[in-house]
Amino acid sequence: MSKIQEPPHKLSGNWIKDLDGRTELAQTMRANYLEMTNHLGGDGVLSYSQRALVEQALWLQYWLRQENAKMANGGEYDVGKVTAASNSLQGILMKLGLRKQARDVSLKDLVDRVAQ
After folding, report:
1. Within a domain: residue 44?
2. Cβ–Cβ < 8 Å for 96, 57
3. What are the Cα distances from residue 25, in Å, to 30, 44, 86, 108?
């Protein structure tokens, strides 16, 4: 099965992993996933549900950016859909928590991070 070039039109599980890693979009989305999961304490401590919410939040962010770009360029813009998506994104982010979560870090983690 070939890798996808952009997020699916309808949300599906593991869509970030299915993106073609050679694309800028895939690299950006994976970096955003890593940033968001790290903010929540790390992918390893998140439940399946939390990881699913992170993927859904990233999909909604992408979709909203696309819709806002359409509006900025004078294209068709459905205010109702954008409002609903914005409210959904806000609800997901509130459910996940806006505060950064502490996580245990080993000496190896610190050395690896400094090396980057």
Report:
1. yes
2. yes
3. 8, 24, 21, 30
Q: What are 37-67's pLDDT values in tens digits?
A: 999 988 889 999 999 999 999 999 999 999 9
* Residue 4 to residues 18, 21, 57, Cα–Cα distance (Å): 6, 9, 19
Given a contact cutoff of 8 angstroms between Cβ atoms, the answer to whether 115 and 69 are in contact is no
User: In the predicted model, what is the mean pLDDT of the chain?
Assistant: 86
Rg of the chain over CA atoms, in angstroms?
16
Asked whether residue 105 is assigned to any structural domain, the reply reads yes
Q: Which domain holds residue 48?
A: 15-115
Does residue 8 lie within any of the structural domains?
no
Q: How many domains does the chain have?
A: 1
- Is residue 66 assigned to a domain? yes
Helix (H, G, I), strand (E, B) or coil at 48: helix
